[in-house]
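Appendix B, Record 12. Input sequence as logged:
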Amino acid sequence: MTATDWLAAFGLMLVIEGLLPFAAPAAWREAFRRVIELHDGQIRFVGAAALAAGVLLLTMLGSS
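Logged structural output:
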């Protein structure tokens, strides 16, 4: 993977991350408020699930 690929992936991540705050700021604020109310263990579980899904997706894409 080249530096250009990494920059493209980072740029795509920023676009995806910016969609909800741009399109629906009130919904984004409410979702963020709900996340703040979660316990540390719940946040860690969500983070671990996202990491696992990302690694699985990257593994599947890399094998094709």
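Helices lie at 3-23, 25-36, 40-63.
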